[in-house]
Design goal:
CATH topology of the largest domain: Alpha-Beta Plaits
Largest sheet: 6 strands, mixed
Helix content: 40-55%
Number of domains: 4
Number of strands: 20
Strand content: 5-15%
CATH class of the largest domain: Alpha Beta
Distance between the termini: 45 Å
Radius of gyration: 27 Å
Length: about 725
Amino acid sequence: MLDWVPTFCYNSHIMKRFVLVDGNALLHRAYHATPPLNVSTTGELVNAVYGFSAMLLRSINELNPDFVAVTWDMKGPTFRHQAYTQYKATRGPADDGLSMQYKRVHEVVEALNIPEFGVSGYEADDLIGTLVTQAAKEKGLETIILTGDRDIMQVIDKNIKVLMPKKTLQDVGMYGIDEFVERFGFSPKQLIEYKALAGDQSDNIPGVPGIGEVTATKLVKQFRNIEKLYQPKNLKTLPERTQLLLAQGAESAVMSKGLATIDINVPIKLDLAACRLHDYDYNKAKKLFEELEFKSLIVRLPGHPLEEKDEISAEKMLEMPKIQNQHTTDLDLEVMPVLEKMSQNGVLVDCDYLRKIGTEYKSRLTKLEQEIYSTVGHEFNINSPKQLGDILFDELHLPVVRKTKTGRSTDEATLHELADAHPVLPLLLEYRMLFKLVSTYIDALPKSIGEEGRIHSTFNVEGAATGRLSSTNPNLQNIPIRGQLGGDIRKAFIASKGKVLLGADYSQIELRIMAHLADDPGLKKAFQSETDIHTVTAAKIFKIPVDQITKEQRNVGKTMNFATLYGQGARALSKQLGVDYATAKTYIDEYFAEFPKVRAWMSKTLEFGMKNGYVETIWGRRRYIPELQAGNKMLKAFGERAATNHPVQGSSADMIKKAMVEIGKEISKKEKGKNGCQMILQVHDELLFECNPDEVEKIAKMVCEKMENALTLSVPVKVDVKVGKNWGEMSPLKL
């Protein structure tokens, strides 16, 4: 599983060799490819550290470099975020299980005496581009970039190659100029022209809306760059629709090219002598690997006295001390084929509908732009944080809420806090929301659609520290759930001809799990009597009968329920509800006074986490939380929130995985009888199926039964099922 670099005959080379490692790409891949692994004596999670170390050492042994260096992204926004607020906006928050392993990875790299490069405001790709440009000036030097990011391929040259995986860890490619041209049809330097047109969904680079990969490739091959493409005499040779799309997306194309272009002038200097391999303290590295219990990797250290190079298999990895018990490990292994099948099935998307609402949204954006310019008094680049900051804080003299490394923050949270301070703020917030929907979904989704009209996302079995699934290429987990705009996006996901969509969604499953874990009589009674839990909570807080609760009071109850789940304090709650701190604190006090066993369970969970270093789900999926021991108050507060959230959210994740496994078995049985139903999507607590209409009720009953019985709770588990021709317009199905 960890043999990222295959055994090629790289060793007998005349030129000196410099291996430049994209640290973030390698670590991220290691984290998701390596089974959960922890140090037996401390419980520290180190699977990403192990995977990174194994791949790094394997590359050193196989590539036999003379020089090695590692580059890293630094925290905080980059110059690309300053140019375009939605850059990488589709990416979810960093996984805590991965984030906590960075410190150890840096210790490994330091122990091997490998130089590390990181510069605030720049990405690792920019550092790599700068370093390979400087290395190219050295005579007789070949550079190999070890990465999982295709963006860096634009720097491929005569003596610069890129080694990266394809679909699996074993399936890799060494790309020089010839290999790149054979694969993509144009030169490496033209990759930025391609992205200017087709965009890049992983980085949320918009490209030209309506121009897909095939058209972009043809245009790049024909015109070489967008400057020549946009010459009037060349535009006239293209089909009318293509001309229209290019004209409408001209500004986006120029911006996208800038975002895709790697900066080769980062303020760093390459010192090759400092990158020389083997010039390290072997005993120091050996001691660190012993501390981390990486015994099988010690024999791979450069200059190790033993000739034998131990190999480690996936089976051996699963036998090592790990953070999961056998139950959750088996569950994750069982659900993987279901996820692969779901990815193969894909989900059908209505491109015509996306174009239609795209036109409507863009028309509204144009009107919003004019309203914003009119309110401010002049035009400016709304998507430039720097220009927006100048408007808000220098021209309008609004208070600076928070600062980042690159200046005054103008993020969404900041705009919300300033929402009542000036009439332009609500306009900016609406603009941001619409712009994100257009760039992230309406313009981006068509780029991921295959020839058969379906999107085939890749689902990751442990995409978060809680065990929740995630999806990539594209990320379908962040599709808006509620509101008209969320409904509009979901309408684009449709059933194929002669089929219908069946949706099955756990009802308030995390609150039900919390009621079970806390064993609180008040919460349990609400679920057992099938009374609306948010209304019950509001009635308890406001001390009035359930039938007298207003819509606004129910909203307070709903917010309190979820604030408890996610460990929000009075300050965060006051902002969310729009009330003062004292009122928010009163709501919290009243909540715990009415549901005392919830607070007792939270205290007990924190006590367990402090003592053992981890918390676990109902089935024993552990999450190690070293932040509970942190001296820093913010870090410790994060650890406390994570500790009380994991048993609930992690149990929910285990539950839907188990349901998917059991449903998958039933569908497989029925497939032999040519039953027309397939699982096509999982988002949070919801499963989506594509079925024959005459079978949908039968399938719905089976799905409900498997979901409701996936995990036995002391309160009823409810699943809401709906059916329709598209995901956004579904009617309840009564069984």
